[in-house]
Amino acid sequence: MATEVKVPTLGESVTEATVGQWLKKPGDAVKADEPVVSLETDKVAIEVPAPVAGVLGEWLVKEGDTVNVGAVIATVGEGAAGASPKPPKAEAASAAKSEAAPAPAETAPAPASGEADNASGAITLSPAVRRLVLEHGLDPSKISGTGKDGRLTKDDVLAAIADGSAVASGTAGTAPAAPVAASTGPSRRQERVKMTRLRQTVARRLKEAQNNAAILTTFNDVDMTAVIEARAKYKDLFEKKHGIRLGFMGFFAKAACMALKDIPGVNAQIEGDEIVYNDFVDISVAVSAPNGLVVPVIRNAESMSIAEIEKAIAGFGKRAKEGTLSMADMAGGTFTISNGGVFGSLMSTPIINPPQSGVLGLHRIEERAVVKDGQIVARPMMYLALSYDHRMVDGREAVTFLVAIKNAIEDPTRLLIDL
């Protein structure tokens, strides 16, 4: 008897999701609690496990379909893994057809080596990864995956392209291809790809933020010399004691908590005709996931040490790559820190995450000429950007907030004695 695979409860107020990627094909053997399909909600991708061990039956929905909570999307039956199961009527019709006439020749073009591996079940690629692999003509079997169960992520493919380790599809052990006639003109190829539910939600919320809030950005720069020296001096001892690497985000998160205590308006929010001030700091930290940036929340960051903050961020980053972040991980948040510097950004004007009133943008560190004690010297400098809702945060408060961050980073001792 077949067991139904249903869409699980997705979180508070979330009633539907989009089928992102089937992880198992009809006829594949599955274990109990083994993921069979990935669903995309407004905030996260959720993997739906098989309720029992057996063989996956036919897909009742396809990738890109919208499904409601509780909907049956597949079945798991008894038996051994094999060919894709068909309904009895389909089997009978197929048998009759095969007796009457030979099967028609396959008209689809032969797949490249990477696609052949995927077709045989050796490699499972998400639509975004598959598109990137095909665009660059790469062999996915030659790229190491860092996703859950070793699956390839978009970041894996981009990293392989950047460092030159990606191998072109079909280049190993094959005869050289015949010369191709020169193109008669520039390519004007177009591709239409449906926006994922996550991207649609991001687009809607960002536009709402621009429409509803009076967003203004103010800048400052910070000399990173002291933090870089402290990190270089203590990073080995820090990792040995806490089991986590010492990064820069811990310093900035701690500095932000101190600054928010002095400038509470940046940690507040508008609800109707009231301003709600929070005596706690829940910091939303943007981390990279295979489907884009996600923003999990560090709860009560004001009461955490730098080591605890670094552990929380590392844990979120790991779970984001594995696709195991939950809706609860990203609910709430009173202030956001976004580090575009890891991607090479020099300066930006980040958009606030409603109903929050502020977001701190960090950028890349580069040596610049600055004047110190009357001398022109080279220092590792970073631009800081604070975007805030000007309806409730004045320019004076925004500048004071950034100066507090700058002072704490340039003199980390302030973080220890709460200055």
Kindly report the CATH topology of the largest domain. Chloramphenicol Acetyltransferase
Helix content: 25-40%
Radius of gyration: 26 Å
* Order of helical and strand elements: EEEEEEEEHHHHHEHHEEEEEEHHEEEEHH
Query: How many individual domains?
Result: 3
Query: What is the assigned CATH homologous superfamily of the largest domain?
Result: Chloramphenicol acetyltransferase-like domain
Query: Averaging pLDDT over every residue, what do you get?
Result: 80
CATH structural architecture of the largest domain: 2-Layer Sandwich
Strand content: 15-25%
CATH class of the largest domain: Alpha Beta
Please identify the structural class as seen in this structure. Answer: alpha+beta
The rough form would be described as globular
How many beta-strand elements?
Answer: 19
Per DSSP, the total helix count is: 11
Low-confidence stretches: 82-122, 171-180
* Main β-sheet description: 7 strands, mixed
Span of the ends, CA to CA: 67 Å
